[in-house]
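ok so I'm stuck.
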Amino acid sequence: MFSETGKPAIMRSAAWRISLWATLAFAFGTMVIFVFLHRFVSNDIQQRSDAWLSGEVQVLGDVAGRTPKDRLYGRVVGEVAELASRELPNKPPNMRENESVFFFQTAPDGSMALWVGKGDGLTFLDAIRRRKKVTDGPSDLYVQKFAIPFRLATASLDNGSHIYLGLSEKDELRLLRNLRLRFFLLWLSIVLIGFAIVFYTTRRMLAHVRRITEAASRIGESDLGSRVPMTNRNDEVSQLASTLNTMLDRIENSVHQLHTITNSLAHDLRSPLTAVRAKLEIALTDETKSGESEGIVSAIEELDRVTEFLNKSLDVAEAKADALRIDRVAINLDDLLRVMIELYEPSMSERGLLIRLRSTGAMEISADAALLHRMIANLFDNEMKHLPPSCTVDASLHVADDMACLTLEDDGPGFAEEISAHLFESRVKGPKSNGRGLGLAFVEAVVRAHSGSIEASNRVEGGARLIIKMPLVARSLEVVSDRPMAVASH
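replied:
not stuck anymore, here's the structure
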């Protein structure tokens, strides 16, 4: 399904927004859980490493204390240290011995007595001597040329010498890095799957709401006999559809009663008015005195005005209640304006008025031909009633934002200030007007019934301006012909 702007309806669905916020909340929650989990695992790994260091350094201390100080001392203690390195915690399967662990013993004077590990051990000895804080348990040792620190455990012998066992933290960091990577991939998969599930579920739920909206819009544009679709589930959406259908039933009954009343009123008033008018016309055809004939003609004209007032009042009342009956057909607004201007040009010319039209070309709207014809006639009638001689009426027709825009301007006195805020209300008229105040109210009712808009204001340079916008059936090409598109009276 595509919207009027050409975008797919799925891109405008609120399911995206709901799914996004739900996914962000879920992602944030799982990330917080991972932070605590990562800290717990990190502490657990470090505790295991520290326990291994403390235990092994005590074993090495016991071995060093019990081994005779002969030429085999270094070999025995060194082999024990190498055996200990093979049981490292978090050790990868392909790691070589002594790659992450070192062991050395210092003499009572602090010099190197025994070294087991990579390199000569002097760098590690210097790092130990530079330590500012010495603790009873394992602590961090930062060694030059090594980006990753070591965990160091110490044991003292009875002769004043010390044994040091160090373990690089790179295996611990590698294990945590792998854990973070795996969790991220798992977290990303869960978030994407969760987003898909939430979006699918929300999309299905909102699809029912969209169908209800589309059905409701069709009901408003066509008739009140249709109803919004119902679902078998007894959920909020089903209750909404049921409520809307119940409301539409009441509205249909109210509109039906309104139509019944207006039809009855029109029939009850038009019939006697038509009969009186017919009798007056018959009397006018008989031989009557000149004074009597003038009275009969005046009475016939007054009856015509009453009939027109009745028709407008009923149309305005139905339009205000959104119950105006419309028979839509495709109408070329440019052609209709030209026909109406040709029809009104002689009458305006007699009153000394000039009317001109400028149009960008043919543009088609879907409207009721009779109502649109009466609407334009009302606009031109108002101009003839309220404009003094030597005034000009400019009508322009163009396309703006897929709407047919009709602008009617004049250089007359404009709208009275005291009624400028109530121009489209029934029975509102200027102080010098002898009408019944239904002209612009009827125009606004017709425009509103056709899903259009109307604006009225006074021009800065003097005169009145009316802007009417009505939706196009299909956008016309805005091409102005070479010949002047103006109709003027002389």
